[in-house]
Amino acid sequence: MEKADPTREILHQLLADLEDEVEMGRRIDEKQSFLVAADGRFLGRVARPEHSESLLNAVGRFGSGQSETSILNYHGPYGSSDSPLSARNPLSASPPLLFVHGEFWGLVSANPGLGLRVISPDRFWRALLSDWESFERGEFSDSGSIPIHAAP
Fold first, then answer.
1. Which tens digit of pLDDT belongs to each residue from 61-73?
2. Residues 130-135: what's their mean pLDDT?
3. Cα angle at 114 between 112 and 118, to 5 degrees?
């Protein structure tokens, strides 16, 4: 049995992290709207429900309540009420980051104490369900209330 090479493992992780950064840069350049976890994990894209990366794809990796990479998985790291990376943890200091039309907008979090640019996961989900296409235009609203625009 071969012994694990720690240097090789570290290099493998560094390469994976670099690839994640390049991919995030591409998403920003393409003016996509998406969520990313504070640990750098991509959590899904605001796109038509049929899209494989869509948060609205109920059978996809980002829209399924069973997926480890979904904020809808109430037992997973990004959707539970006790994970430090979760949108639903009212004490989390590291919730998911929301990008709208390629611009950092703010945080999706149940912790209102994080600042002005925070949207609760329930409000975010309602906005997504009511008009996901508005994210593609760089704005979104909560069931007809005042529109929330991407930061200038």
1. 999 999 999 999 9
2. 86
3. 65
